[in-house]
Design brief:
It is a single chain. This protein is of the alpha/beta class and 726 residues long. It has four domains: 16-73, ADC-like domains (N-terminal domain of TfIIb), CATH 2.20.25; 82-155 and 359-472 and 486-520, 3-Layer(aba) Sandwich (Rossmann fold), CATH 3.40.50; 173-348, 3-Layer(aba) Sandwich (Dimethylsulfoxide Reductase, domain 2), CATH 3.40.228; 599-724, Barwin-like endoglucanases, CATH 2.40.40.20. The strands form six sheets. Strands 5-4-16-15-14-6-7 form a seven-stranded mixed β-sheet, with helices on both faces. A six-stranded mixed beta barrel has the order 21-25-22-24-23-26. A hairpin with an 8-residue loop joins strand 1 (20-25) and strand 2 (34-39). The longest helix has 19 residues, at 96-114. Bound molecules: iron/sulfur cluster. The site of iron/sulfur cluster has 14 residues, from helix 1 and helix 6.
């Protein structure tokens, strides 16, 4: 027998004859990878590959992108509208006409009875920007409810709020190219290799060439923490104190950029007085990082020449989420690290088109980053849409996290859910089914007919999925990319754009308004509406975007191929052009471990799954990596509790309980556990989810739990199946 590489059989890839390759953009995370999907002679998607000359991913894809084409053939796709008619326990198939007529008449009935804000809409970060724009026109111009939000409140609201407070507008200033220029990268609450693997590859390529310091702040020893030069295992929820203390050291040791502060910021005095109180010694007591180490990282950051901070949910999903983002901006403003190569505050966005909803959906404002609070913006949009301006509210209504309590209080009677699954994704999720069942009318629009929320719906509208329609997404670095249609939607499923337009036609209030019917026509409208705005699309077209493999806004006559960075001139979006330095006192206001609930509960994503597994739970090549909910527990803690590896245990919080498998690892400290966020009836039953006062984003990562060993493992598995967490 001969062994060794030379004698191995050649790897045989299954033959998948491809007739054509269709250019498109990945529909999972906000990295924004360009994909080509291979379609065979029968019109079936059979394979996929990364686009080699796309700057974002340079030919690479992560697991989810590689297998994304399999969603087209996945189980439980909705193929026909469903309606509960005479028997409330029974859904029956119906026509689009009947489903949409019923939806429109129920919206009208509820609004006539209880007022226009008694009907709410919660959408997603997954549909195309043309669809967001049209939904905004429908929600604000036709349905006219102010209780309209996206599920992006659960992931990105704090970043949006923080950018607005510091810079006067939403919009990430930096880009992936900053990795090539930075002298120091600080990553807070971001496990980049698992959450955004291809951004991580970009960073790793730059790091391998230049070896600049990477500092990772995370309570857990994540994959990212393992590759960092310095890992700061911070106490949950105390990032603000660390950032204030870093600013303290930078100012005290003369490392700040005084010219930048003088010419481009306001509020230095109050900010300086506040951070003077946050000595590293004081911070050490709060966040558990030694004063010596805080001084060290502050000096590295302040001395770097160009330094950048990236973050994800570790910052955003906190009671101090918005303050955490402002604190990052403060740090970068005092060191002159905004808008220059390698110097930035770059929020790594979550969903593939969370940025698109921020730019054009009108959830929290009006399209093109216009504000409901601004009379000029209301007047412009009303004229552009053909709606009287007085129909627009003068400030935004409830966010998703406030909509559910308003349903519970009986203030909201009807709800439209679009591409979102709050029964799994909302904190304290056991309450959500009860709340949804209180509604007089619930319409669910989703690509899958077996999403948990459909069980409480009165009408189900089957939507086309990514790759079954054309439009654009915007990624983390403001890059707009085309998502081309690869295949036809199954059965009678329809693109979300079609559904919005058809619903608008059923309201008298839409008279006088024009709804563009094709994605390209909507895109043209978006180009006009955004002209001269920060998120200027006016210089883009689908063809140009595809040719460039994505274009970063603003793209206009001055920047014909887009702009890598914004605020390079130091001019911000406040009327005087200056950014704000904001003092941020820290108040400890979340659940803390105690005798009854002694462990921190941390939550997060896995590389193979996406959000509530609506899609990835049905892709065999992804689901088989993690089909069962589990928790990471430190081996010493497990020993104390008598828990063996791969045993089922019950995790209990003040809200509810969940059953998970125990995975023993030193990635978590002895006083903490980690459970992935993806499973139905699992970790979000436990999470308290207190809200950030500015962004209304829930704190998913600062709850406390106890752990019970389960003696009867067979019974535990049975319970898990009953909870349908698998
Ligand atoms: Fe898709 Fe994100 Fe993976 Fe890229 S990194 S292939 S965008 S899931």
């Amino acid at each position: 027998m001969l062994f060794g590489r030379r004698f191995k059989n050649e790897i045989q890839l299954p033959v998948k004859p491809v007739e054509k390759w269709v250019y498109t953009t990945c529909g999972y995370c906000s990295t924004g990878c360009s994909i080509e999907v291979g379609v065979n002679q029968a019109g079936k998607a059979v394979t996929a590959r990364g686009v080699a000359d796309a700057d974002v991913n340079r030919g690479k894809l992560c697991l989810k992108g590689i297998y994304e084409y399999e969603v087209f053939e996945s189980e439980n796709r909705g193929t026909t509208p469903l309606l509960r008619k005479d028997r409330p326990d029974l859904f029956t198939e119906t026509t689009w006409d009947e489903a949409l007529n019923r939806t429109a008449s129920e919206i009208g009935r509820i609004q006539a009875l209880y007022g226009r804000d008694s009907f709410a809409i919660v959408s997603t970060g997954q549909i195309y920007t043309e669809e967001f724009y049209t939904l905004g026109k429908l929600a604000r111009g036709v349905i006219r409810t102010n209780n309209y939000d996206g599920n992006t409140t659960l992931c990105m609201a704090s970043a949006v709020s923080g950018y607005k407070r510091s810079f006067g507008s939403d919009g990430p200033p930096g880009c992936y190219d900053d990795f090539e220029h930075t002298g120091c990268l600080l990553a807070i609450g971001s496990n980049l290799p698992e959450q955004h693997p291809i951004i991580y590859y970009r960073l790793k390529e730059a790091y391998d060439r230049r070896r600049f310091p990477i500092i990772v702040v995370d309570p857990r020893v994540t994959m990212f923490a393992q590759m960092a030069d310095i890992h700061l295992p911070i106490k949950p929820g105390t990032d603000l104190v660390l950032l204030n203390a870093m600013a303290h050291v930078i100012l005290e040791e003369g490392l700040a950029d005084q010219d930048y502060i003088k010419f481009h910021t306001n509020g230095f005095e109050a900010f300086g007085s506040l951070v003077a109180q946050y000595s590293p010694e004081m911070a050490e007591k709060v966040c558990g990082i030694s004063a010596k180490m805080i001084r060290k990282v502050a000096r590295i950051y302040g001395d770097a020449g160009a330094a950048m901070t990236i973050w994800t949910m570790g910052i955003n999903q906190s009671t101090h989420g918005s303050d955490g983002v402002v604190a990052i901006n403060n740090l970068n403003l005092i060191t002159g690290n905004i808008g220059k190569p390698g110097g930035t505050s770059l929020s790594i966005t979550g969903q593939c088109n969370a940025m698109g909803t921020r730019e054009f959906s009108s959830c929290s404002g009006l399209p093109g980053y216009r504000l409901l609070e601004n009379a000029e913006d209301r007047a412009f949009t009303s004229q552009f849409w053909g709606v009287e301006a007085h129909h627009f509210p003068e400030k935004r209504g409830l966010t998703e996290t406030d909509i559910f309590p308003a349903i519970e209080r009986g203030e909201i009677k009807g709800l439209w859910l679009i591409g979102t699954n709050p029964m799994t994704s909302m904190p304290d999720s056991t309450k959500i089914r009860k709340i949804l069942n209180q509604l007089e009318f619930l319409v669910v629009q989703d690509a899958y007919a077996n999403v948990e929320t459909v069980e409480s719906a009165h009408v189900y509208l089957p939507a086309a999925l990514w790759g079954e329609k054309t439009g654009v997404f915007t990624n983390t670095e403001r890059r707009v990319n085309v998502v081309r249609k690869v295949v036809e939607p199954p059965g009678d499923a329809k693109p979300d754009l079609w559904i919005f337009i058809e619903l608008a036609k059923r309201f008298d209030r839409a008279k006088g308004m024009t709804f563009a019917e094709s994605p390209a026509e909507v895109f043209d409208e978006m180009r006009s509406v955004s002209k001269g705005r920060l998120c200027d699309y006016s210089g883009m077209s689908y063809e140009k975007i595809e040719k460039n493999r994505g274009i970063q806004w603003p793209c206009n006559e001055q920047n014909i191929n887009g702009s890598q960075r914004i605020y390079a001139d130091g001019v911000f979006q406040f009327p005087d052009g200056k950014a704000k330095l904001i003092p941020l006192p820290f108040v400890e206001n979340y659940e803390m471990p105690d005798e009854d609930y002694p462990f921190w509960l941390n939550t997060g994503r896995l590389v193979e799954h996406w959000h509530t597994r609506t899609k990835t739970g049905k892709i065999g090549n992804l689901n088989k990596f993690s089909p069962t909910p589990f928790m990471e527990i430190n081996p010493k803690t497990a020993k104390k509790l008598g828990i063996q590896a791969m045993e089922f245990v019950r995790v209990i919080s003040r809200r509810s309980s969940a059953i998970v498998l125990a995975q023993l690892t030193e990635r978590v400290s002895e006083d903490a556990i980690f459970i992935p966020m993806h499973y139905y009836n699992c970790v979000n039953r436990l999470v308290k989810g207190e809200l950030d006062p500015y962004s209304r984003q829930p704190a998913y990562k600062q709850s406390t739990v106890r752990i019970d060993k389960l003696m009867d493992q067979d019974e535990a598995e049975k319970s898990l199946l009953e909870l349908r967490s698998y």
